[in-house]
């Protein structure tokens, strides 16, 4: 494994649970040596099964086994002097440590994240906590469920139906997002260390990860346009629908796709380009006819037609069907774990770069004697430098919409020079989607999603349909370290810009391609929006009520893909640093989604269990649900909710005490999670009655200080009202030459060595940097003027 990009990078894992486990899995898969330090009780995840499958003595749960593959385990009691010395030796010889609260190790004051950073200045210390290390909420309890509520992710994109409570996204996806962010932050910080810098503290807030992954820049949207993205829950139509033989997801993300759906179903008469209604509203009016049309056909018939019409579509995968889907079978998307179950392969493929194959997980304490008797080489801190982690890296950004721009946006915020290439005739799609009328002056500069995703970037316009435009792009690529794109594969193939062509321009280039379904396989050329990616990967399967079709999360697929692509780019850049060789990255959106939905296939193949959606209930807490409060919401509806999730028996006792120990709650059978789960309806009935008489603020003020995980279900554009986000400076206000100053999210982690502020500049105007970049490429002022006159470049929309 010496050829892996992170070979020799030593990471001490002092975390418990999914977020830290997934972070260190990504690092281990890249070749890092991960030493998992566990207290004598071991990581509780060793005993976990979402289906409740029995785990025998000396055995580990399948999810733990998946996440811990290739790692080592050291058992240490922090109260024992010899073990304390062992931990100190491990930290002195490591490059990074991943830390989370709530274990006997983390509870030891000298092993707190701040203390580790102070005692070991060479270390990259990544702390993964619910709310961040500091701030008014830093010590308060939370679960995945309550974090989704606080973030606005439960209601953020209007998921669900208005006749029931909104629903969270199933599968603890936020934990995986947090782990992915932590891995990327560590890899970026490592680049700063390799440049001669000292270590630093990475303070990651899981709440902020949820904001970034489960909502769509709602604060920027609201402040720029004066209205929320959605003001009510609406089913996506057709969305996930029943066919003769199962469930399929067919969606319309653009007006053209709605028109094509009308034609596909034989209803050209529905097409009205001047309709005052949105395409969602138009589809909603025709929902009965659309559902009836789909119910008369098989899933294959519906999907074949949708594919022919270039309408995004996918089967809705379940744990027992996902591996058999033709695309995944053709691509070998699943591999065998040495323990015997099946798991997703890596979330990205990097040609010519070795990643660790599925490997055995360590037994508890298996490697303790090895490290006690043979300590490694002690590390020394470098000099503290002001350079940003990715300074000196130039990125040619050919991406559009969300997944690709998020990847390159994070690179820009971390110091890379990112040049976003658009066309004045066909600009980035996010300049077109917010409904700003074309009658407004410079309407294309007033789109909040583009504004939020492209701060700190430069912008250049090139008409790649012209020979001259392609020649200039080639000259730009010759100066770059990274090229990133997220079109369907046929687009770049048509332009003659596949990896072999780009490599001829710049032999050591890192090229990140982010197609929805990959560069091969039967679904290769299918258009991919977030919702079909979520359906195909199984994320949708766990979202919604058991007696209804699943709901589309309709958010997660894009940012999750961009985040995993960033991890892959950073691995490829490290490979280039070591070898001088470039690399082709295939970061398919669906491969990233399969990895954060891994628990489903892992549980099914290990235990034969098909995990099911259960509304707002879940396997990790009981009770867990949304409860209506006494308030009328800002839209005039009795639609205000709180989330309560009791994850431990101690929290149940705290809840009972906070309620005043009512008679209904003192039943001894409710003292255990199993007993509460059996009587879930009974518990919910009483909690619902109690909450219905109180405001959300009153409920939170009663339960949270007592130690009960609780949250108001926030409208996402109200995120700035959360005092924890304000205390951490999560939003920064930026001026803009066209738009009024508004707030923008930063990153869900803070680096102790910056950037501060995070945003270096607002999103660029269309073609703003044409002259600057073309002059650098050697063109004269007259030549640039001629390009403008010929329409090869442009400084405004001319579609």
From TrEMBL:
InterPro entries: CoA-transferase_III_domain, CoA-Trfase_fam_III, CoA-Trfase_III_dom3_sf, CoA-Trfase_III_dom_1_sf
GO molecular function, one term: CoA-transferase activity
Keyword Signal: no
Superkingdom classification of source: Bacteria
SUPFAM superfamilies: CoA-transferase family III (CaiB/BaiF)
A matching Pfam family: CoA_transf_3
Keyword Metal-binding tagged: no
Protein name: CoA transferase
Lineage: Bacteria, Bacillati, Actinomycetota, Actinomycetes, Mycobacteriales
